[in-house]
Amino acid sequence: MTFSPQLEERFAKMLACYPEGRKRSAVVPMLIYAQDETGAVTEELIAEVAKRCEVAPLQVDEVVGYYSMLHRKPLGKYHVQICTNISCMLVGGEELYEHAKKKLGIGHKGVTADGQFSLEEVECMGACSWAPAVEINYDFHHFVTPEKLNQLIDALKKAH
Amino acid sequence: MPTKLYNEPSPLETRVVSKRFGLENSHTLDTYLANDGYKAFRKAREMTPEKIVDEVKASALRGRGGAGFPTGLKWSFVPRTSPKPKYIVINADESEPGTCKDRLLMEYDPHQMIEGILIAGLAIDSHKGYLYIRGEYRYLIEHMDRAIAEAYAKGYLGKNIAGTGFDFDLYTHSGAGAYECGEETALLDSLEGKRGIPRMKPPFPAVAGAWASPTLLNNVETFSAIPPIIRDGGAAFAALGTPKNGGTRLVCISGHVNKPGVYELPLGYPMLKAIYDVAGGIPGGKKLKAVVPGGSSCPLLKADECDIPMDYDTLAKVGSMLGSGGMVVLDETTDMVKFALRIMRFYAHESCGWCIPCREGTTWLRKILQRFVDGGGRKEDVPLLGELSKNMLGRTFCALGDAAAMPTISIVDKFPEDFEKRLPAANSQLVVV
């Protein structure tokens, strides 16, 4: 498996930054950066990461099952993550999540039929003082109302 | 350019660690150098390692990640003469519900944190650091990669830093979504490419941490406080707070307040003043019901318990914790059963499953609370919730089990009427089973 030149460069640097004989340390960051490019953690990707980090595929596989941001199936092109943890819940996070379900027509970890959007109710993502918070892919949005969420989603639909 | 702040600063703040927030291009090395940057490192270079550690001890700085352990003492535990390499690991896995401050320290003033890391490097004779950032903060990983590259390019990382003959390399490392990885030994397992599961202590990370080498682990805010401490002296920092609770800290105020935000306040700042004056009070003139003082792991305080100074020791005295600085304000309309359920859903989701009391305890507490919220609550569930929680305390490798149990115990003890209200009439008799 090969990745984009930028990612290959990142991986080369990554593998060199840990102590001698400790390439296994790159497993988690390598998986998440690779997933961004491949769309999901496939068996092929697990084997590739295992080879590069000099561990058994099973040692990579067990890691995939542990971290909530690693997915074995592709997400939507735009992954809408809505926090409903305490700070967000107190100021409308749950209502926002219910609204998003209706707006997108999907539930927790669902993907729209056209593959454009996926939705996830997530735990605290560190935006408590600017709640309710939403992260779409890696972009944070703060003080999100249902109207603001509509605008964000509609703008992404148009961009497509 | 990150000069626009997420929230308006308050005139009531004491800005030491956040003093550069809002300056134009505050994230660049040039702005940092023009505003006292690297004065502390140069000073530290002239000091003995023992003197650096003594200065940190004198500052009465306590770990800003949550546990509040005295930082100078932690530094003194690292065997600096060990023949093994010593590592510095920076915990930027900010995940404690209610906490959103490390983000700002990295976004607005990355070089302050880097200078703090370098001073720690001098103190424990370490030349390599790993900045473990939660995966959701990808924009910050990229931001820190740029700041680190700038520091290398201008001679503030790498070989012979600022011409002082000291070498240090710093790398970012991405997490991938796991609250548990904020626990220091689980973080180390994650850094080593494994599932983030807590380790048996001892040995403590100071002796055998990353790759079985001596490792100093501190939170982003802890490292960010080091340059002002060394620059102006530990005593000056200590004097800002109260005895044994030195300096200032970033308090993240969220929930039912008019001006939620992150504010830098001295240790010992009155809690009610923080809520009503700094954060503008409660919307609609509603009454205060409860406060989560320092992140969701802390026992809640009832409104009548909140007339206290916010320092580690006072919070411990009233049976709670200052934690990570995440203060969540709840008004009189808050349904505490629902609140307890949301907290437990979080811990049940995040329990790594390693210790049975935590794995099973959080799951069953979640189920009982869910049943209550769904209208199937039974009178005997209320003491059951308390007992089950108490049975988790102290029976796990890490503090996640306690973190789930403690707020639950406090809610059951302090808000029994909220449970009463949700009891269906048919279930209101206590059944002895």
Q: What is the oligomeric state here?
A: heterodimer
Shape of chain A: elongated
* Share in helix of chain B: 40-55%
Spans of at least 5 consecutive residues with low confidence of chain A = none
Largest sheet of chain B: 5 strands, mixed
Superfamily (CATH H level) name of the largest domain in chain A: Glutaredoxin
For the termini of chain A, the CA-CA separation is 29 Å
CATH classification class of the largest domain in chain A: Alpha Beta
Instruction: Give the strand order, joined by hyphens, for the main sheet of chain B.
Output: 6-5-11-8-9
Which value, in Å, is the CA radius of gyration of chain B? Answer: 22 Å
Write structural notes for this entry.
The complex is a heterodimer of chains A (160) and B (433). Chain A is an alpha+beta fold and 160 residues long. Chain A folds into 2 domains: 5-64, Arc Repressor Mutant, subunit A (Orthogonal Bundle), CATH 1.10.10; 78-159, Glutaredoxin (3-Layer(aba) Sandwich). Chain A has 7 helices and 4 strands, in the order H-H-H-H-E-H-H-E-E-E-H. Chain A has helices spanning 5-16, 27-38, 43-53, 57-64, 86-90, 93-104, 146-159; strands spanning 78-83, 117-122, 134-136, 139-141. A 4-stranded mixed β-sheet of chain A has the order 2-1-3-4, covered by helices on one side. In chain A, strand 3 and strand 4 (139-141) form a beta hairpin. In chain A, helix 2 (27-38) runs antiparallel to helix 3 (43-53) and helix 3 (43-53) packs across helix 4. Chain A is elongated and about 50 Å long. The model of chain A has no long low-confidence stretch (mean pLDDT 97). With 433 residues, chain B is an alpha/beta fold. Chain B has 3 domains: 29-240, 3-Layer(aba) Sandwich (Rossmann fold); 249-331, Ubiquitin-like (UB roll), CATH 3.10.20; 336-427, de novo design (two linked rop proteins). Chain B is 41% helix and 12% strand. Chain B is built from 17 helices and 11 strands. Chain B has helices at 29-34, 39-45, 49-58, 71-76, 102-108, 110-124, 138-153, 184-191, 220-232, 234-240, 271-278, 312-317, 336-350, 356-376, 381-392, 400-414, 416-422; strands at 87-92, 128-133, 169-174, 215-219, 248-255, 261-266, 269-270, 288-292, 301-302, 309-310, 326-331. Chain B has a 5-stranded mixed β-sheet with strand order 6-5-11-8-9, with helices on one face. In chain B, strands 3-2-1-4 form a 4-stranded parallel β-sheet, with helices on both faces. In chain B, strands 7-10 form a two-stranded antiparallel sheet. In chain B, strand 5 (248-255) and strand 6 (261-266) form a beta hairpin. The radius of gyration of chain B is 22 Å and the shape is globular. At the A-B interface, helix 2, helix 4 and helix 5 of A face strand 3, strand 5, strand 11 and helix 13 of B.
